[in-house]
Amino acid sequence: MIWSTASGIPPLRTLLEELIPNRQQIDDYEIALEVPRLGTRCMMLNARRIDGDDRSGELVLLAMEDITERRDSARHQELLVGELSHRVKNTLAVVQSIAAQTLRHSNSLDAFAEAFQGRLQALAGANDAIIDGSWKGVTLRHIIQRSLKPFGVERQVALADGPEIDLRPQACLALAMILHELATNAVKYGALSVPAGLVSIAWRADLDGKKKTIAIDWTESDGPSVETPSRRGQGTRFIERSIAYELKGKASVAFERDGLRATLTFPSITAIMPVASLTPIAKAVK
Fold first, then answer.
1. What is the tens place of the pLDDT at every residue in 166-223?
2. What does the alpha-carbon distance between residue 41 and residue 21 come to, in Å, rounded to a whole number?
3. pTM for the predicted model, two decimal places
4. Are residues 115 and 245 both part of a single domain?
5. Distance CA 23, CA 128 (A)
6. Cα separations (Å) of 98 from 87, 150, 174, 242, 249?
7. Which residues, other chains included, contact 190 with Cβ-Cβ below 8 Å and sequence gap of 6+?
8. Which domain does 203 fall in, by range?
9. Residue 152 has what DSSP assignment?
10. Is residue 12 domain-shared with residue 136, that is, in the same domain?
11. How many domains is the chain partitioned into structurally?
12. Are 162 and 42 within one domain?
């Protein structure tokens, strides 16, 4: 005889009638039940077959526990552990790549130490921004501001109008590193090396054309006169390789006499979060 509670749940009664004859007991058996007003619930089933007397016949002692929340929490934890492992491996790969590139193009140990430390700080800052955004996307505007903040040059940087673009975490890291290189060069040799210098940053998104792209323009002015270098420097090579590898894009760097100009162009699909929205900004931020 099946306990009356099970009798009122046909799927459960059928399950017990199939399992109990083949075994004396059922331990920690998970089943899914449709519960009125609650929907599908995950239940933990334990059952014991008990010999009754002549009048009652065979009995079943049945215990059920709703473990839906516990099951969902365990699955969520597994996903988090897997995601954390994936991101740690990615970060270590990025650090290894940064170290290799910096070492390859450094003329001395001191030059390597300076460049490598700055790039690691840029990477750490970008990671902080991503964590603050709960890994759900950080706006391009915020990444630009966050990347330039350590240099203390806010009054010499003008951010033009641009759409609000939510970036994927990997795109945040790549752009933070590239912006760090541009800012480092500007502070050492360019517009940000003098009080009157100015850096203008603008970005645009072309999402209507066949090639959906995002472009960032970095323009320096009122700084020291610029001379075209005889060879591409470490920073320029780092920018070109980073945008090509991480964002499948390209960088155009021009050493014009009145100031360095750089344009970063990359496909939107490699950078924008799937749920990203593009909203015009009414007023420029300086």
1. 888 888 888 888 888 898 888 888 898 898 999 999 999 987 777 889 999 999 999 9
2. 26
3. 0.59
4. yes
5. 55
6. 16, 19, 11, 9, 18
7. 197, 199, 220, 223, 224, 226, 259, 260
8. 108-270
9. T
10. no
11. 2
12. no
